[in-house]
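#data-curation
PF: Archiving a pair of folding outputs for the training set. Convention for this channel: one message per protein, sequence first, structure tokens after, nothing in between. First:
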Amino acid sequence: MENLLRPLIVVGGSVALTLLIGWATDLLLRKADARHHETPLWGLLRRGRIPYQLVLCAAMLRGSFDEAQLLEQHRVGIGRTLTLVLIGAAAWLVIRIAAAIVETTYTRYARAHRDPARVRRVRTQVTLIMRVVAAVVGVVAVAAMLLTFPAFRAAGASLLASAGILGIVAGVAAQSTLSNMFAGLQIAFGDMVRIGDTVVVDGEWGTVEEITLTFLTVRTWDERRITMPVSYFTSKPFENWSRGTPQMTGIVFWHVDHAAPVDAMREKLRDILRECPAWDGRAYGLDVTDTTPNTMEVRALMTAKDADDIWTVRVTVREGMIRWLAAEHPYALPRVNTADAALPPNRTNGRLRDDVSRDGAAASRGHESPRGGA
């Protein structure tokens, strides 16, 4: 009976005590979260209740397994397995706690600052910091797991002895990866590009959706995703429309006839912009910027608060002006002129009449009959 009750008490007691402590801790966190609405820390810490319970259970079982006297022939293997579970759960718990602290700090910063550019900058830095923390904790946890095996501990001396050569080889082999990692840190803390920024890369217009230590994802206007190495943004030029203030100035061109009513087009542009909610009201203008033998180029300027609104304003102005010209001033649209050319004024004076008289006299002489000339 003792051989049966001892493992049952040890294992069952460890599991029951783990569930009890986990329930009590979760209850305290929920009460703290309900009491302190201004900070999401306590609610975020509840995400770590599973790794927290795993750490408790693994630690209790690892400490009391010898007393259970269960599966004596597999004691070493079970003890090492519990140690691996304890290390992995502890690493998982550390990552969850760090994520809760960092997320709480970012939330407080976002509430205190109303500048979207600064908030996006901090968000980018927080995201990359969490990735670095997760990577470091993961590497340390894997190394601790490997050190639990005697074979790896024995090989540690030889690995340290050859660390210099291996470091050189790894550095050469992973040159592009390391450059991307350093470029990711440079982007995060150099404020070059942030999550949510509107950028133009290789002629593609889109919004930065994700930034990691090695790659960056841009979501285009047609919902495609372009994934690029972060080293691209540190070595090549690109357009960042969200840098500084997000306000933008848009341009619309028309090619119209030389007789187009430019003053009336200015008034119509003002009317179209007043009816467009995306126009921010800062400025507008319309000017003739170029001419060709058949048309003249008219340019309209308008402003908006960001890149999305400037696109809406441009297409609205372009469509509204063309519709108005077609309905009210169809002669102003480009057309092929098939009318007779107007002669200059000096060609309608006496010299032109003399030329016509001489031409008429020569024609009449040429048509005289031979008999009349005799």
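PF: Second:
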Amino acid sequence: MSVRELVVLGTASQVPTRHRNHNGYLLRWDGEGLLFDPGEGTQRQMLRAGVAAHDLNRLCVTHFHGDHSLGLAGVIQRINLDQVPHEITAHYPRSGQHFFDRLRHATAYRETVRLTEAPVAADGTLAVTASYTLEARRLSHPVESYGYRLVEPDGHRMLPERLAAHGITGPDVGLLQRTGRLRGVTLADVSEVRRGQRFAFVMDTRLCDGVHALAEDCDLLVIESTFLDEDAKLAADHGHLTAGQAAAVARDARVRHLVLTHFSQRYSDPEEFERQARAAGFEGELTAAHDLQRVPVPKRR
């Protein structure tokens, strides 16, 4: 059975707190694991969450500020220590190649795993697999930053009444699905399009075109909300979003489940982020993330 869920490893911005680790987010997507923005302490958070190095297939870094990338050194060394048997691909801004090189070779260790470097230099498609297409979009932050979007290919939902009308039953249903045509009946005659699921990961950024493009029609959107709305000027000055801004993006993009994260340590009441998100008019499912939380990708419509 396929599993699609977000495992939240850390939710703090800039510095960890007693209750929040630096950033870290694992997306389980069927048989793959995509680790986003591993900040300091991610390796230990993986242990606490029951996530193994063998679960990782891609490392996706939005930008090279420490709270989003200092955990790379430990994660990469753990991948090699555990001798993960499959290839792992790393995505990160090409302009930060020197930072990636330093983190990858921060200390001496024995390299046993094939780690493929696939830096991001512009908006576009990064990878296409049978389960998803991975895309990147430029964001607006003091250092070059990219958000990531994962889109499942559209499929087909078979309609029993149409199948019955054409006399197609049993193994012939599967044959029609595989071949697209059977005895003059096409797949379109007996099915409807089942839209693929969509996930987006948006970290440090001001409002910009990339934010809206990444969020469009997402089933699950993970987005930073570093500041509360009363500190909107501070957010803009430092290249961040407020809770209300993030929620307005989700509202306009028709997001089904909104996950707010990357909270500044200046705030003591996490529920205020939810209140401001609701005040902005977002009516879908809403989560103000906490460490070691699991958030399932919503079921298909």
